[in-house]
Design brief:
Largest interface: A-B, 23 and 33 residues
Distance between the termini of chain A: 54 Å
Shape of chain A: extended
Number of strands of chain A: 0
Oligomer: heterodimer
Radius of gyration of chain A: 26 Å
CATH class of the largest domain in chain A: Mainly Alpha
Order of helices and strands of chain A: HHHHHHHHHH
Helix content of chain B: 25-40%
CATH topology of the largest domain in chain B: Rossmann fold
CATH class of the largest domain in chain B: Alpha Beta
CATH superfamily of the largest domain in chain A: MetI-like
Distance between the termini of chain B: 44 Å
Protein backbone atom coordinates (compact mmCIF):
# COMPACT_ATOMS: atom_id res chain seq x y z
CA UNK A 1 0.00 0.00 0.00
CA UNK A 2 3.04 2.24 0.02
CA UNK A 3 2.63 3.38 -3.58
CA UNK A 4 -0.63 5.22 -2.84
CA UNK A 5 -0.03 8.81 -3.92
CA UNK A 6 0.16 11.10 -0.91
CA UNK A 7 -2.70 13.54 -1.18
CA UNK A 8 -2.85 14.38 2.51
CA UNK A 9 0.13 15.01 4.71
CA UNK A 10 -0.46 14.93 8.44
CA UNK A 11 1.86 15.47 11.34
CA UNK A 12 0.95 15.40 15.00
CA UNK A 13 2.96 18.54 15.81
CA UNK A 14 3.59 21.77 13.95
CA UNK A 15 7.26 22.69 13.20
CA UNK A 16 7.17 25.22 16.06
CA UNK A 17 5.88 22.57 18.47
CA UNK A 18 8.55 20.11 17.31
CA UNK A 19 11.24 22.70 17.88
CA UNK A 20 9.83 23.44 21.36
CA UNK A 21 9.77 19.73 22.26
CA UNK A 22 13.35 19.28 21.05
CA UNK A 23 14.45 22.27 23.13
CA UNK A 24 12.87 20.78 26.25
CA UNK A 25 14.67 17.44 25.72
CA UNK A 26 17.95 19.24 25.15
CA UNK A 27 17.47 21.30 28.33
CA UNK A 28 16.82 18.13 30.36
CA UNK A 29 20.03 16.47 29.10
CA UNK A 30 22.02 19.68 29.73
CA UNK A 31 20.62 19.90 33.27
CA UNK A 32 21.63 16.30 34.06
CA UNK A 33 25.16 16.79 32.73
CA UNK A 34 25.63 20.04 34.67
CA UNK A 35 24.33 18.57 37.93
CA UNK A 36 26.64 15.56 37.72
CA UNK A 37 29.58 17.90 37.26
CA UNK A 38 28.50 20.06 40.21
CA UNK A 39 27.98 17.18 42.64
CA UNK A 40 31.66 16.15 42.35
CA UNK A 41 31.45 12.48 43.24
CA UNK A 42 34.70 11.35 44.79
CA UNK A 43 35.40 7.81 43.47
CA UNK A 44 37.28 6.64 46.58
CA UNK A 45 34.37 7.49 48.88
CA UNK A 46 31.96 5.79 46.51
CA UNK A 47 33.93 2.54 46.41
CA UNK A 48 34.36 2.69 50.20
CA UNK A 49 30.59 2.97 50.83
CA UNK A 50 29.63 -0.75 51.15
CA UNK A 51 32.33 -1.24 53.77
CA UNK A 52 31.12 1.78 55.75
CA UNK A 53 27.52 0.56 55.64
CA UNK A 54 28.55 -2.86 56.90
CA UNK A 55 30.54 -1.25 59.71
CA UNK A 56 27.60 0.93 60.74
CA UNK A 57 25.21 -2.02 60.78
CA UNK A 58 27.68 -4.02 62.90
CA UNK A 59 27.80 -1.21 65.47
CA UNK A 60 24.00 -0.95 65.51
CA UNK A 61 23.44 -4.63 66.16
CA UNK A 62 22.08 -5.85 68.57
CA UNK A 63 19.26 -3.36 69.06
CA UNK A 64 19.21 -1.99 72.60
CA UNK A 65 15.62 -3.00 73.45
CA UNK A 66 16.06 -2.31 77.15
CA UNK A 67 16.59 1.35 76.29
CA UNK A 68 13.07 1.67 74.81
CA UNK A 69 10.95 1.96 78.01
CA UNK A 70 13.25 4.39 79.81
CA UNK A 71 14.62 6.48 76.94
CA UNK A 72 12.44 6.20 73.84
CA UNK A 73 8.80 5.65 74.76
CA UNK A 74 8.02 9.08 76.21
CA UNK A 75 9.79 10.86 73.35
CA UNK A 76 7.94 8.74 70.81
CA UNK A 77 4.59 9.62 72.37
CA UNK A 78 5.59 13.27 72.34
CA UNK A 79 6.34 12.96 68.64
CA UNK A 80 2.90 11.52 67.94
CA UNK A 81 1.31 14.28 70.01
CA UNK A 82 3.26 16.93 68.08
CA UNK A 83 2.12 15.41 64.79
CA UNK A 84 -1.54 15.08 65.80
CA UNK A 85 -1.91 18.43 67.51
CA UNK A 86 -0.01 20.15 64.70
CA UNK A 87 -2.25 18.54 62.08
CA UNK A 88 -5.38 19.54 64.00
CA UNK A 89 -4.21 23.14 64.29
CA UNK A 90 -3.33 23.16 60.58
CA UNK A 91 -6.81 21.88 59.64
CA UNK A 92 -8.48 24.63 61.62
CA UNK A 93 -6.28 27.32 60.06
CA UNK A 94 -6.29 25.86 56.53
CA UNK A 95 -10.08 25.63 56.26
CA UNK A 96 -10.74 29.38 55.98
CA UNK A 97 -7.62 30.02 53.89
CA UNK A 98 -8.57 27.22 51.47
CA UNK A 99 -12.08 28.68 51.13
CA UNK A 100 -10.69 32.13 50.40
CA UNK A 101 -8.32 30.68 47.81
CA UNK A 102 -11.10 28.98 45.80
CA UNK A 103 -12.32 31.38 43.15
CA UNK A 104 -15.78 29.82 42.74
CA UNK A 105 -16.51 30.05 46.48
CA UNK A 106 -14.96 33.47 46.99
CA UNK A 107 -15.14 35.31 43.66
CA UNK A 108 -12.77 38.15 44.58
CA UNK A 109 -9.45 37.79 42.78
CA UNK A 110 -7.38 39.94 45.22
CA UNK A 111 -8.60 37.83 48.16
CA UNK A 112 -7.77 34.64 46.22
CA UNK A 113 -4.28 35.93 45.58
CA UNK A 114 -3.63 36.85 49.21
CA UNK A 115 -4.89 33.40 50.32
CA UNK A 116 -2.69 31.69 47.73
CA UNK A 117 0.28 33.77 48.88
CA UNK A 118 -0.30 32.55 52.45
CA UNK A 119 -0.49 28.95 51.24
CA UNK A 120 2.65 29.25 49.10
CA UNK A 121 4.68 30.88 51.86
CA UNK A 122 3.62 28.16 54.28
CA UNK A 123 4.76 25.47 51.84
CA UNK A 124 7.94 27.13 50.67
CA UNK A 125 9.45 26.91 54.16
CA UNK A 126 10.55 23.44 55.24
CA UNK A 127 9.30 22.04 58.56
CA UNK A 128 12.84 22.10 59.92
CA UNK A 129 13.17 25.79 59.10
CA UNK A 130 9.78 26.54 60.67
CA UNK A 131 11.00 24.60 63.71
CA UNK A 132 14.20 26.66 63.89
CA UNK A 133 12.09 29.83 63.79
CA UNK A 134 9.73 28.66 66.54
CA UNK A 135 12.58 27.34 68.69
CA UNK A 136 13.99 30.84 68.43
CA UNK A 137 10.65 32.36 69.52
CA UNK A 138 9.36 29.89 72.12
CA UNK A 139 12.56 28.12 73.09
CA UNK A 140 13.22 24.40 72.53
CA UNK A 141 10.43 21.92 73.14
CA UNK A 142 7.24 20.39 71.86
CA UNK A 143 5.41 23.71 71.42
CA UNK A 144 7.89 24.83 68.76
CA UNK A 145 7.54 21.43 67.05
CA UNK A 146 3.76 21.54 67.07
CA UNK A 147 3.67 25.02 65.56
CA UNK A 148 6.29 24.07 62.97
CA UNK A 149 4.17 21.09 61.88
CA UNK A 150 1.02 23.22 61.82
CA UNK A 151 2.53 26.06 59.80
CA UNK A 152 4.09 23.76 57.25
CA UNK A 153 0.79 21.83 56.88
CA UNK A 154 -1.46 24.86 56.34
CA UNK A 155 -0.09 25.30 52.84
CA UNK A 156 -0.45 21.65 51.95
CA UNK A 157 -3.96 21.17 53.35
CA UNK A 158 -5.19 24.61 52.23
CA UNK A 159 -3.97 24.17 48.67
CA UNK A 160 -5.49 20.72 48.19
CA UNK A 161 -8.71 21.72 49.96
CA UNK A 162 -9.03 24.86 47.82
CA UNK A 163 -8.48 22.81 44.67
CA UNK A 164 -11.11 20.30 45.77
CA UNK A 165 -13.53 23.20 46.24
CA UNK A 166 -12.78 24.49 42.76
CA UNK A 167 -13.55 21.09 41.25
CA UNK A 168 -17.05 20.84 42.75
CA UNK A 169 -20.00 20.66 40.38
CA UNK A 170 -21.55 24.04 39.68
CA UNK A 171 -25.04 22.68 39.12
CA UNK A 172 -26.00 21.93 42.70
CA UNK A 173 -24.60 25.25 43.89
CA UNK A 174 -26.62 27.00 41.19
CA UNK A 175 -29.75 25.23 42.42
CA UNK A 176 -29.14 26.43 45.99
CA UNK A 177 -28.51 29.97 44.75
CA UNK A 178 -31.75 29.79 42.77
CA UNK A 179 -33.59 28.88 45.98
CA UNK A 180 -32.24 32.05 47.63
CA UNK A 181 -29.72 30.33 49.91
CA UNK A 182 -27.22 32.74 51.49
CA UNK A 183 -23.47 32.24 50.96
CA UNK A 184 -22.86 30.41 54.23
CA UNK A 185 -25.67 27.96 53.52
CA UNK A 186 -24.41 27.35 49.98
CA UNK A 187 -21.06 26.55 51.56
CA UNK A 188 -22.41 24.17 54.16
CA UNK A 189 -25.13 22.52 52.05
CA UNK A 190 -23.60 22.68 48.58
CA UNK A 191 -19.81 22.77 48.75
CA UNK A 192 -19.07 20.94 51.98
CA UNK A 193 -20.88 17.66 51.14
CA UNK A 194 -18.99 17.57 47.86
CA UNK A 195 -15.52 18.14 49.35
CA UNK A 196 -15.98 16.34 52.66
CA UNK A 197 -14.37 13.05 51.52
CA UNK A 198 -11.38 14.83 49.98
CA UNK A 199 -10.99 17.01 53.07
CA UNK A 200 -10.74 14.05 55.44
CA UNK A 201 -8.54 12.17 53.07
CA UNK A 202 -6.18 15.19 52.82
CA UNK A 203 -6.23 15.49 56.63
CA UNK A 204 -5.30 11.82 57.12
CA UNK A 205 -2.59 11.97 54.47
CA UNK A 206 -1.11 15.05 56.12
CA UNK A 207 -1.20 13.44 59.57
CA UNK A 208 0.63 10.46 58.09
CA UNK A 209 3.32 12.78 56.66
CA UNK A 210 3.50 14.73 59.93
CA UNK A 211 4.18 11.63 62.01
CA UNK A 212 7.30 11.11 59.88
CA UNK A 213 8.28 14.79 59.78
CA UNK A 214 7.91 15.35 63.52
CA UNK A 215 10.38 12.52 64.11
CA UNK A 216 13.23 14.67 62.78
CA UNK A 217 12.14 18.01 64.27
CA UNK A 218 14.01 17.15 67.47
CA UNK A 219 17.29 17.48 65.55
CA UNK A 220 16.83 21.24 65.82
CA UNK A 221 15.48 21.09 69.36
CA UNK A 222 11.77 21.15 68.63
CA UNK A 223 10.89 18.22 70.88
CA UNK A 224 9.98 14.61 70.26
CA UNK A 225 12.03 11.57 69.40
CA UNK A 226 14.40 13.55 67.18
CA UNK A 227 16.05 14.99 70.31
CA UNK A 228 16.71 11.50 71.64
CA UNK A 229 18.04 10.49 68.23
CA UNK A 230 20.29 13.54 68.14
CA UNK A 231 21.93 12.83 71.48
CA UNK A 232 22.38 9.13 70.69
CA UNK A 233 24.04 10.09 67.39
CA UNK A 234 26.33 12.62 69.08
CA UNK A 235 27.43 10.08 71.70
CA UNK A 236 27.98 7.37 69.02
CA UNK A 237 25.52 5.09 70.85
CA UNK A 238 24.70 3.18 67.68
CA UNK A 239 22.68 0.48 69.45
CA UNK A 240 20.38 3.16 70.78
CA UNK A 241 20.22 4.84 67.39
CA UNK A 242 19.04 1.51 65.99
CA UNK A 243 16.35 1.23 68.69
CA UNK A 244 15.07 4.71 67.90
CA UNK A 245 15.05 4.11 64.14
CA UNK A 246 13.19 0.84 64.64
CA UNK A 247 10.63 2.60 66.88
CA UNK A 248 10.06 5.31 64.26
CA UNK A 249 9.71 2.67 61.55
CA UNK A 250 7.18 0.78 63.64
CA UNK A 251 5.10 3.90 64.34
CA UNK A 252 5.12 4.94 60.67
CA UNK A 253 3.80 1.51 59.70
CA UNK A 254 1.10 1.72 62.38
CA UNK A 255 0.12 5.18 61.14
CA UNK A 256 -0.06 3.88 57.59
CA UNK A 257 -2.34 1.02 58.70
CA UNK A 258 -4.55 3.36 60.71
CA UNK A 259 -4.86 5.82 57.82
CA UNK A 260 -5.75 3.09 55.33
CA UNK A 261 -8.34 1.69 57.70
CA UNK A 262 -10.02 5.06 58.37
CA UNK A 263 -9.90 6.15 54.72
CA UNK A 264 -11.77 3.03 53.65
CA UNK A 265 -14.53 3.90 56.11
CA UNK A 266 -15.06 7.52 55.12
CA UNK A 267 -14.89 7.30 51.34
CA UNK B 1 -48.53 47.97 36.26
CA UNK B 2 -50.06 45.27 34.13
CA UNK B 3 -53.43 43.56 34.17
CA UNK B 4 -54.70 41.66 37.21
CA UNK B 5 -53.62 38.02 37.28
CA UNK B 6 -50.25 38.73 35.72
CA UNK B 7 -47.51 37.08 37.75
CA UNK B 8 -44.54 37.91 35.58
CA UNK B 9 -44.06 40.58 32.99
CA UNK B 10 -40.89 40.62 30.90
CA UNK B 11 -40.26 43.83 28.94
CA UNK B 12 -37.61 44.48 26.30
CA UNK B 13 -35.29 41.87 27.75
CA UNK B 14 -31.89 41.74 26.04
CA UNK B 15 -28.88 39.66 26.86
CA UNK B 16 -25.50 39.46 25.18
CA UNK B 17 -22.75 37.32 26.70
CA UNK B 18 -20.29 39.10 24.42
CA UNK B 19 -20.74 42.69 23.29
CA UNK B 20 -22.37 42.92 19.88
CA UNK B 21 -23.54 39.28 19.88
CA UNK B 22 -26.98 39.35 21.51
CA UNK B 23 -28.54 36.02 22.49
CA UNK B 24 -31.83 37.62 23.45
CA UNK B 25 -32.99 40.59 21.39
CA UNK B 26 -36.01 42.29 22.88
CA UNK B 27 -38.09 39.56 24.52
CA UNK B 28 -41.55 40.58 25.76
CA UNK B 29 -43.92 38.25 27.53
CA UNK B 30 -46.47 38.09 30.31
CA UNK B 31 -47.22 35.08 32.41
CA UNK B 32 -50.64 34.77 33.98
CA UNK B 33 -51.55 32.99 37.18
CA UNK B 34 -52.39 29.27 36.81
CA UNK B 35 -50.77 28.94 33.41
CA UNK B 36 -48.44 26.31 32.00
CA UNK B 37 -46.24 27.95 29.39
CA UNK B 38 -43.90 25.93 27.21
CA UNK B 39 -41.02 27.68 25.49
CA UNK B 40 -39.82 25.90 22.35
CA UNK B 41 -37.21 26.78 19.78
CA UNK B 42 -33.99 25.55 18.20
CA UNK B 43 -30.85 25.01 20.29
CA UNK B 44 -28.86 28.16 20.93
CA UNK B 45 -31.78 30.50 20.48
CA UNK B 46 -31.73 31.67 24.08
CA UNK B 47 -34.51 29.63 25.73
CA UNK B 48 -32.28 28.69 28.59
CA UNK B 49 -30.85 32.20 28.80
CA UNK B 50 -34.38 33.61 29.01
CA UNK B 51 -35.32 31.31 31.91
CA UNK B 52 -32.06 32.00 33.71
CA UNK B 53 -32.44 35.76 33.27
CA UNK B 54 -35.74 35.60 35.14
CA UNK B 55 -34.12 34.48 38.41
CA UNK B 56 -30.85 36.18 37.50
CA UNK B 57 -28.70 33.06 37.35
CA UNK B 58 -27.73 34.92 34.19
CA UNK B 59 -27.49 38.73 34.39
CA UNK B 60 -29.74 40.44 31.82
CA UNK B 61 -28.06 43.15 29.76
CA UNK B 62 -31.13 45.37 29.67
CA UNK B 63 -34.89 45.31 30.06
CA UNK B 64 -37.17 44.77 33.00
CA UNK B 65 -38.69 41.73 34.69
CA UNK B 66 -41.64 42.66 36.91
CA UNK B 67 -42.49 39.99 39.48
CA UNK B 68 -44.71 40.56 42.51
CA UNK B 69 -44.45 44.31 42.14
CA UNK B 70 -40.65 44.55 41.88
CA UNK B 71 -38.29 44.71 38.96
CA UNK B 72 -36.02 41.69 39.43
CA UNK B 73 -33.36 43.23 37.18
CA UNK B 74 -32.77 46.05 39.67
CA UNK B 75 -32.50 43.97 42.82
CA UNK B 76 -29.32 43.93 44.86
CA UNK B 77 -27.81 40.95 46.66
CA UNK B 78 -30.08 40.56 49.68
CA UNK B 79 -33.25 41.64 47.89
CA UNK B 80 -32.40 39.32 45.03
CA UNK B 81 -31.97 36.42 47.45
CA UNK B 82 -35.34 37.17 48.98
CA UNK B 83 -36.99 37.36 45.55
CA UNK B 84 -35.37 34.09 44.45
CA UNK B 85 -37.08 32.30 47.33
CA UNK B 86 -40.38 32.99 45.54
CA UNK B 87 -39.19 31.41 42.27
CA UNK B 88 -38.66 27.65 42.15
CA UNK B 89 -36.42 26.12 39.52
CA UNK B 90 -36.15 22.64 38.03
CA UNK B 91 -33.01 21.78 36.05
CA UNK B 92 -32.20 19.48 33.17
CA UNK B 93 -29.41 17.77 35.11
CA UNK B 94 -31.51 17.83 38.32
CA UNK B 95 -28.68 19.68 40.14
CA UNK B 96 -29.23 17.85 43.40
CA UNK B 97 -26.48 17.75 45.99
CA UNK B 98 -25.46 14.19 45.20
CA UNK B 99 -23.94 13.24 48.53
CA UNK B 100 -26.87 14.46 50.61
CA UNK B 101 -30.01 12.49 51.32
CA UNK B 102 -33.33 13.02 49.56
CA UNK B 103 -34.71 14.72 52.67
CA UNK B 104 -31.73 17.09 52.88
CA UNK B 105 -32.16 17.93 49.21
CA UNK B 106 -35.82 18.74 49.76
CA UNK B 107 -35.03 20.88 52.78
CA UNK B 108 -32.40 22.75 50.77
CA UNK B 109 -35.39 24.42 49.11
CA UNK B 110 -35.91 26.17 52.46
CA UNK B 111 -32.35 27.48 52.81
CA UNK B 112 -33.49 30.99 51.98
CA UNK B 113 -35.65 30.99 55.11
CA UNK B 114 -33.40 29.24 57.62
CA UNK B 115 -30.20 30.67 59.12
CA UNK B 116 -26.95 29.10 57.93
CA UNK B 117 -26.23 27.84 61.45
CA UNK B 118 -29.59 26.10 61.76
CA UNK B 119 -29.15 24.68 58.27
CA UNK B 120 -25.73 23.29 59.26
CA UNK B 121 -27.28 21.72 62.38
CA UNK B 122 -30.11 20.43 60.15
CA UNK B 123 -32.65 21.94 62.50
CA UNK B 124 -35.43 22.99 60.15
CA UNK B 125 -38.86 24.15 61.36
CA UNK B 126 -41.32 21.32 61.99
CA UNK B 127 -43.69 22.51 59.27
CA UNK B 128 -40.90 22.31 56.69
CA UNK B 129 -40.25 18.70 57.62
CA UNK B 130 -43.99 17.93 57.54
CA UNK B 131 -44.27 19.50 54.10
CA UNK B 132 -41.21 17.62 52.87
CA UNK B 133 -42.71 14.26 53.84
CA UNK B 134 -46.02 15.25 52.28
CA UNK B 135 -44.25 16.20 49.03
CA UNK B 136 -42.27 12.95 49.02
CA UNK B 137 -45.59 11.11 48.95
CA UNK B 138 -46.94 13.34 46.21
CA UNK B 139 -43.92 12.79 43.95
CA UNK B 140 -44.04 9.06 44.65
CA UNK B 141 -40.87 8.72 46.71
CA UNK B 142 -42.29 7.71 50.09
CA UNK B 143 -39.69 5.72 51.99
CA UNK B 144 -36.79 7.40 50.17
CA UNK B 145 -36.24 10.19 52.72
CA UNK B 146 -32.89 8.82 53.88
CA UNK B 147 -31.67 7.50 50.53
CA UNK B 148 -28.70 9.37 49.12
CA UNK B 149 -29.46 11.38 46.00
CA UNK B 150 -26.71 9.65 44.03
CA UNK B 151 -28.41 6.29 44.55
CA UNK B 152 -31.52 7.38 42.62
CA UNK B 153 -32.40 6.92 38.95
CA UNK B 154 -32.78 9.91 36.62
CA UNK B 155 -36.57 9.98 36.91
CA UNK B 156 -36.41 9.73 40.70
CA UNK B 157 -33.85 12.52 40.84
CA UNK B 158 -36.07 14.80 38.80
CA UNK B 159 -38.93 14.00 41.19
CA UNK B 160 -36.68 15.19 44.02
CA UNK B 161 -35.80 18.26 41.91
CA UNK B 162 -39.48 19.11 41.51
CA UNK B 163 -40.21 18.52 45.19
CA UNK B 164 -37.26 20.75 46.16
CA UNK B 165 -38.57 23.58 43.96
CA UNK B 166 -42.09 23.22 45.41
CA UNK B 167 -40.67 23.22 48.96
CA UNK B 168 -39.92 26.89 48.37
CA UNK B 169 -43.69 27.49 48.10
CA UNK B 170 -42.93 29.58 45.03
CA UNK B 171 -45.24 31.93 43.14
CA UNK B 172 -43.55 30.92 39.91
CA UNK B 173 -41.86 27.75 38.72
CA UNK B 174 -39.14 27.72 36.07
CA UNK B 175 -38.15 24.46 34.42
CA UNK B 176 -35.09 24.37 32.19
CA UNK B 177 -35.51 21.34 29.91
CA UNK B 178 -36.67 19.16 32.79
CA UNK B 179 -37.09 16.04 30.65
CA UNK B 180 -34.22 16.31 28.17
CA UNK B 181 -32.08 13.80 30.07
CA UNK B 182 -34.89 11.28 30.52
CA UNK B 183 -36.38 8.48 28.43
CA UNK B 184 -39.73 9.14 26.67
CA UNK B 185 -41.89 7.29 29.19
CA UNK B 186 -40.25 8.92 32.20
CA UNK B 187 -40.45 12.28 30.42
CA UNK B 188 -44.24 11.99 30.20
CA UNK B 189 -44.47 10.97 33.86
CA UNK B 190 -42.31 13.88 34.95
CA UNK B 191 -44.29 16.38 32.84
CA UNK B 192 -47.51 14.98 34.27
CA UNK B 193 -46.19 15.31 37.81
CA UNK B 194 -44.85 18.83 37.28
CA UNK B 195 -48.03 20.15 35.69
CA UNK B 196 -50.30 18.37 38.20
CA UNK B 197 -48.45 19.83 41.18
CA UNK B 198 -48.42 23.28 39.61
CA UNK B 199 -52.15 23.18 38.77
CA UNK B 200 -53.07 21.89 42.25
CA UNK B 201 -51.23 24.75 43.86
CA UNK B 202 -52.05 27.38 41.28
CA UNK B 203 -48.38 28.01 40.54
CA UNK B 204 -47.67 29.26 37.02
CA UNK B 205 -44.89 27.36 35.24
CA UNK B 206 -42.54 28.26 32.40
CA UNK B 207 -40.96 25.19 30.84
CA UNK B 208 -38.21 25.13 28.24
CA UNK B 209 -38.42 22.11 26.07
CA UNK B 210 -37.23 20.45 22.90
CA UNK B 211 -40.11 18.03 22.55
CA UNK B 212 -42.90 19.76 20.62
CA UNK B 213 -45.23 16.82 21.23
CA UNK B 214 -44.85 17.05 25.00
CA UNK B 215 -45.27 20.82 24.83
CA UNK B 216 -48.58 20.45 22.95
CA UNK B 217 -49.77 17.81 25.36
CA UNK B 218 -49.05 19.51 28.65
CA UNK B 219 -48.92 23.26 28.09
CA UNK B 220 -51.83 25.61 27.74
CA UNK B 221 -49.70 28.16 25.97
CA UNK B 222 -46.72 27.79 23.68
CA UNK B 223 -44.06 30.39 23.07
CA UNK B 224 -41.85 29.83 20.04
CA UNK B 225 -38.46 31.49 20.00
CA UNK B 226 -36.11 32.01 17.09
CA UNK B 227 -33.08 34.24 16.76
CA UNK B 228 -33.37 35.53 20.31
CA UNK B 229 -36.94 36.77 20.24
CA UNK B 230 -40.50 35.50 20.48
CA UNK B 231 -41.91 34.54 17.07
CA UNK B 232 -44.94 32.57 18.19
CA UNK B 233 -47.18 32.95 21.21
CA UNK B 234 -50.54 31.19 21.31
CA UNK B 235 -52.46 28.18 22.58
CA UNK B 236 -51.12 24.77 21.44
CA UNK B 237 -54.04 24.33 19.02
CA UNK B 238 -52.70 27.15 16.87
CA UNK B 239 -49.21 25.66 16.57
CA UNK B 240 -49.47 24.59 12.93
CA UNK B 241 -46.79 23.67 10.41
CA UNK B 242 -46.22 27.24 9.27
CA UNK B 243 -45.58 28.28 12.86
CA UNK B 244 -43.12 25.43 13.36
CA UNK B 245 -41.40 26.44 10.13
CA UNK B 246 -41.07 29.95 11.46
CA UNK B 247 -39.64 28.73 14.76
CA UNK B 248 -37.24 26.02 13.59
CA UNK B 249 -36.69 27.03 9.96
CA UNK B 250 -36.91 24.70 6.97
CA UNK B 251 -39.55 22.02 6.65
CA UNK B 252 -37.82 18.81 5.62
CA UNK B 253 -37.55 17.70 9.25
CA UNK B 254 -41.32 17.72 9.74
CA UNK B 255 -42.12 14.91 7.33
Amino acid sequence: MNDVPATHSWRRFTPAQRLARFTVYLAIVAAIVTSIQTVEIIPEFLSDAPEQVADLLRRMWPIDVAYYPKGVHAALMETIHIASLGTLLALILALPVGILAAHNVCPFTPVNLVAKLILVSSRSVNSLVWALLFVGIFGPGALAGTLAIAFRSIGFVGKLFGEALEETSRGSIEALAAAGAPWASRLSFGYWPQVKPSFWSIALFRWDINVRESAVLGLVGAGGIGMTLDSALNLFQWNRVATILAAIFFVVILAELAVTFVRKRII
Amino acid sequence: MSAAGTVLSVRHLCKSYRAGQPVLTDVNLEVMIRSITAVIGPSGTGKSTLIRCINRLVEPTSGSIMFEGTDLVRLRRRELREARRRVGMVFQEYNLVERLTVMENLLSGRLGYVSAWKAWRRSFPREDIERAFELLNIVGLEGFADARADSLSGGQRQRVGIARAVMQQPSLLLADEPTSSLDPKTSVEIMQLLTDIARDRGIPVIINMHDVGLARRFADRIIGMAGGCVVFDAVPGLLADDALKKIYGGEDWMH
